[in-house]
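Q: Hi! New to this. If I give you a protein sequence and the SMILES for zinc ion, can you show me the bound structure?
A: Yes, paste them in.
Q: Okay, here:
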Amino acid sequence: MKDKVMLLEMPWHEARRRAQQNAVAVIPMGSIEEHGPHLPVGTDVIYTEGIVKRAAEIAAKQVPIVVLPTFAYNVVWWAKPFFSIGPKPDTLQKLLREIIHALVYQGFRKIVLFQGHAGNTAPWTALLQLADEGIDAHLFDVNLGAVVQKTIRALGEEAPPRSGHGGWWERSVVEFVRPDCVYPDLIPTEENREKVKPSNYKCVDNGDVKLVGFATRTPHGYTGCPELGSRELGEKFLELAAKFLAEIFIEIGKKEPAYPTPREQLEQRVPIDS
Ligand SMILES: [Zn+2]
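A: Thanks. Here is the predicted structure of the protein with zinc ion bound:
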């Protein structure tokens, strides 16, 4: 039981013990949205859970940790008119806040929000709101993007160009975690691969300005080179990404923050004209 990291697989007394041990509580966030013709709409959920679970298993050898169920619902309105299902930002923010409060009530003091979906900024907004609310915990905002960049650098020459959306690494990791969820006949080839349309604005194409609306630039919901992925690459990618993420979990688990929680700060605050 002690080697379990997924909350849903633990009896309540083990979950309570983790809270009492000041365990790191991780909330992984995926999304439901198109990932090209060859990958499922749950791509972000599948790889996020795969990477976070493996990272937590590595970290659990050194620090107490517990992983909450992955949020499948995320703010995905940006993906319209492609197939996407998700709440409005304020709904997600409320839900996250309540889950975080429930964790704090149970005794958790180190809570990691792991955003496995790069196109979403609502959790960050929620974090800022929560920091202001005086909760008795420390919140850590960990973004998949940084872990992916580190992993691609570590893969070196083995990493194909252009990571993309529904591209080589997402395809590879899904193929490793859930081989039944990649549709080989529908993987775009180099010949028929969709070209991202130039925006007609230099400032957009060179990255200085973000044009809102993914669908305006890619008619079939993917970018990058999905044909360059593989199950083997997915295994390597997941192991490396999990290793980098585990380092973060371990550091959070081992160290205490240099500053008090928002609640402690509130209690310490003395009015200027007292
Ligand atoms: Zn994705």
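A: The chain has nine helices and six strands. Let me know if you'd like me to explain how to read the tokens.
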